[in-house]
Amino acid sequence: MATPPISSRAASLGTENAFVVLAEVNELIAQGRDVISFCIGQPDFPAPVHVQRAGIEAIETGLHGYTPSAGISELRTAAASYMGKMRGLEIEPDDVVVGAGAKPFIAYAIQSTTDYGVGDEVIYPVPGFPIYESQITALGAVPVPLYLRESRNFAFDPDELAAKITDRTRMLILNSPQNPTGGLLSKKDLEAIAAVLREHPQVWIYADEIYSRLVFDGQFQSIAAEPGMLERTIISDGASKTWAMTGWRIGFVANKSLAPLMTKWVTNTDSCASHISQWAAVAAISGPQNDATMMRKTFLARRDLITGLLNNIPGIECQASGGAFYAWPNVTEVCAATGCADSEEFRQRLLHEAGVAVLADIHFGHRVPDDGQHIRFSYATSDENIEKGVARIAEFVQKNSA
After folding, report:
1. DSSP state for residue 330 in the 8-state scheme
2. Pairing mode of beta strands 251-254, 96-99
3. Phi/psi of residue 190, each to 5°?
4. Which domain holds residue 137?
5. DSSP alpha helix (H) spans, 205-349
6. Measured over all CA atoms, what is the biggest interatomic distance in the chain, rounded to whole angstroms?
7. What is d(CA 348, CA 378) in angstroms, rounded to the nearest whole number?
8. How far is CA 323 from CA 64, 290, 396, in A?
9. Which of 36, 249, 334, 399 keeps 20 to 30 A from 88, CA to CA?
10. Is residue 54 part of a domain?
11. Strand partners, 174
């Protein structure tokens, strides 16, 4: 007997291809293949010991029932202070909502600012975190790509932003430091973006700043700190990247007007974030920052290592990322030299012939017109893996170049 049909909404839902490729990698490893993976963007460190102990203490003292949907007051207070100090802003605890990671707030923000199927538009960065486009489409809004260009250090042209905004634009998604390019929006960039947005008061801003503590060049800058932008900006941050807490699933957003709606969305979906993880996050924010500082220094050293090694391979050009833990080399020439039609064929051959797992640019949206071919490395892995993995790529290129 045939199964009933699924919804067009479900059929349109995209995915995060890093996990798809990881499944392929794990299958090859299970078959006995030796694969060095640069796929998953998560710190390769344990959460700080004092954070672990806070989680254990929460379990042992019975702090593992439901919490208010917006989060425990201690975490909302800590997150408000933390986000405010990072951005030079005054943020009240009541403006903050805690969720099961930062990712759900992408959907909550789109659901709170657009209506289904009426042509409301959301502008989002390309290349970018694939869940942006996936959620925009599934939630019935219209995705409008805004291209990040290599010539601009993977920022976008403010004039291009201005040209993409229409009367139907409801939200602009900004991500800095950026996944997958590691690009940063500078103070100058943000001033220009704010100038454009002041002409369009109907547009909300979703500021995905989950990598805010992993900035290598200059200081972290937020669009929310630009005059007139705080009220319309949904500041999104969390514990995953800064304190190596990806599996603890704690994110938080701040916006005075939308906090009550975000709370309702949490009530309608997860009820609340993990009570145990919330207490661990309080410890992460309020406790010693030695581990966070160490991780940033380590990622910076790895950035310099992998950038230098990749640029030594003929046909590969790699800019040093300004933040996060990603390298986004241009592989246009090496694809041609090795007979690969594009970055995706190059990725597949690296995996199956060289035992190196990376992601291709098409896993992060449409290719940027006239910007060539790219692949992504997550350098959240050891120096040894970086050196061995890039050496395998160099050997593959030498062996297969005409």
Report:
1. B
2. antiparallel
3. -65, -35
4. 65-286
5. 259-269, 275-286, 290-311, 332-337, 343-349
6. 66
7. 17
8. 35, 19, 29
9. 249
10. no
11. 207
Contact 132, 106 (CB under 8 A): yes
Q: Show which of 286, 315, 342 is a domain's final residue.
A: 286
For 165-194, what is each residue's pLDDT tens digit? 999 999 999 999 999 999 999 999 999 999
Residues 223 and 322 both lie in one domain: no
Nearest C-alpha neighbor of 232 from the set 258, 266, 193? 258
Last residue of a domain, one of 286, 320, 337: 286
Q: Alpha carbon of 160 to those of 142, 153, 196: distances in Å?
A: 17, 16, 10
Tokens (6 digits) for 97: 């909502």
What letter does residue 40 receive in the DSSP assignment?
-
Look at residue 19 and tell me whether its pLDDT is greater than 90.
Answer: no
Distance of CA 156 to the CA centre of its chain: 17
Question: Among the residues of 181-249, which ranges form H helices?
Answer: 187-197
Q: What is the pTM of this model?
A: 0.95
Distance of CA 30 to the CA centre of its chain: 29
Give me 140's structure tokens.
């019935």
Which residues, at least 6 apart from 396, have a Cβ–Cβ distance to it below 8 Å?
Answer: 338, 349, 350, 353, 354, 356
